[in-house]
Each structure stands twice: as structure tokens, then as C-alpha cells.
Amino acid sequence: MSDVKLSVIYYSATGTIHGMAKRLTEAGKQAGAEVRLRQVAELAPEEAIASNAAWSQHFDNTKDEPRATADDVVWADAVLFGSPTRYGNVASQLKQFLDTLGPQWQQGLLADKVYAGFTATQTAHGGQESTLLALYNTIHHFGGLVVAPGYTDPLKFVDGNPYGVSHVTGANNDAPLTDAEHAALDHMAQRVVRIAGRLRGEG
């Protein structure tokens, strides 16, 4: 069976989601997948970015990284989407990218793939679950297969999010990822690759 093709497509303002995406990329490779790591385009005006030092620094650090295209979704057997929470919803940058996929959706090119999501907020009840559920509304319209981690491993009782993987960044938006999040990210990537591999095998 050919290697599973995994795309990790994300938006990150200050770097947390970027860090999670990199961990998922490495875990996907360890699981035997061919992985593309792609960020979506920044839409915010320069003055908004410049008003936040962490945002400005992250923008500068990642401005030369590959940008996501529709082909990165079409190519993949599995896609992991990442977004910080914006009022309990997906960030406009990732939503705009999803909204450009209409031609591929109409052709059925987004269906029958495995999808899951990851997110971060400053507070523990800051909209993590609603953001992932909102993301999955789009996946349902794609005809995609949501492979959320659920409680399929005891480690999920530590990180506590059956809908995907999430992280609390704290009041200063700088709390680092912990072993619990790393384990949860590894588990989600491995599970997504495994299920996508089974689907390929049944093709």
C-alpha cells in the first residue's frame, strides 16, 4: 500500500498553532505518511499585525513558508486543519481559504478524505470545542470523514478534548505546549494516518 498523503493546513497569528502544526507534521511522518505543511494567507492589515509584537514577529518568521493551495487538499488522503479560536469560531484566514475550495467541492474532489482539527485559546473555556465543531460543519459539506480522536486512548482523559486537540495559551498568550498536548497531537496524527491508510487499502 502506498504511503498516506497528509496535509497539515493552518493559520497561526502568534505561533501556537504553528507549533502544533509542526508537531503534527513530525508525528505524521513517523506514522509513515508523506506530509505537506502549509499555512494559509494572512488577511489582517499591516497595522493590526504591527500592533502586537508576537504577531508581528511570527509573521516575519514565517512569511517565506509555503502557502496552502487547493491542490494541497485535493492531493491529500487526510487533512488536519488548525486555527486559533475567534469568538468561538474558525479564524477568518482559514475560513477564507476553505471558501475558495468551491470548484473542488463541486467536482467531488474534497469528499471521502479523512479530516480532523486543532485549535488554541487563551482561556480554558474560550471556545475550543465550538471552533472545532464549526470547522467540522464544513467537512460535512465536503462529504469528508471526520476522524476526531474521541477517547480512543487513555491520554485523551488528560488533554480532555474528544473533538480534536486544543491548547490553552494563558492570559499572556505564551504558555508553551506541554507533554499532554504533544501526546494528544501525536495520537491524532497517528490515528488519522491509520484510518486514511485503511480507506486507501479498501479503494
Pattern of helices and strands:
EHEHHHEEHHEHEHEH
Number of strands: 7
Largest sheet: 7 strands, mixed
Which outline best applies?
Answer: globular
Describe the structure.
The chain has 203 residues and is α/β, with parallel strands linked by helices. 45% of the residues lie in helices and 18% in strands. It has nine helices and seven strands. It has helices spanning 16-30, 46-50, 53-62, 70-75, 92-99, 102-106, 128-142, 156-159, 179-202, and strands spanning 5-10, 34-39, 78-86, 89-90, 114-121, 145-146, 165-168. Strands 1, 2, 3, 4, 5, 6 and 7 form a seven-stranded mixed β-sheet that branches. Helix 1 crosses helix 9. The chain is globular, with a radius of gyration of 16 Å.
Protein traits:
203 residues, alpha/beta, 7-stranded mixed sheet, 9 helices, 7 strands, 45% helix
In a nutshell, what does this entry contain?
It contains nine helices and seven strands. The chain is of the alpha/beta class and 203 residues long.
Secondary structure elements and pairings:
Elements: E1 5-10, H1 16-30, E2 34-39, H2 46-50, H3 53-62, H4 70-75, E3 78-86, E4 89-90, H5 92-99, H6 102-106, E5 114-121, H7 128-142, E6 145-146, H8 156-159, E7 165-168, H9 179-202
Parallel strand pairs: 1-2, 1-3, 3-5, 5-6, 5-7
Antiparallel strand pairs: 3-4
Helix pairs in contact: 1-9
